[in-house]
Design a protein that fits this description.
Helices cover about 35% and strands about 15% of the residues. With about 70 residues, it is of the alpha+beta class.
Length: about 70
């Protein structure tokens, strides 16, 4: 069976944490950022755990060897 290719766009967007869970950045980060409070901007910089329904598909097709 041939090697699977990693989707490079997904590799840049998703990271695997120490527990093996896929993490993704929050959206809505770039537009109208200057009018948001400092607290909200800090919260946008955190990464979230990807939903388990999406994680299964991502790990199988898009990121077969981890991020």
């Amino acid at each position: 069976m041939p090697k699977l290719k990693t989707h490079k766009g997904a590799q840049k967007r998703f990271k695997v944490n120490g527990a093996g869970k896929l993490m993704h950045p929050k959206g809505m980060k770039s537009h109208f950022r200057r009018r948001r409070s400092q607290r909200v901007k800090q919260q946008l910089d955190r990464m979230l755990v990807t939903d388990k329904t999406v994680t299964k598909r991502l790990k199988k097709k898009v990121l077969p060897y981890g991020a």
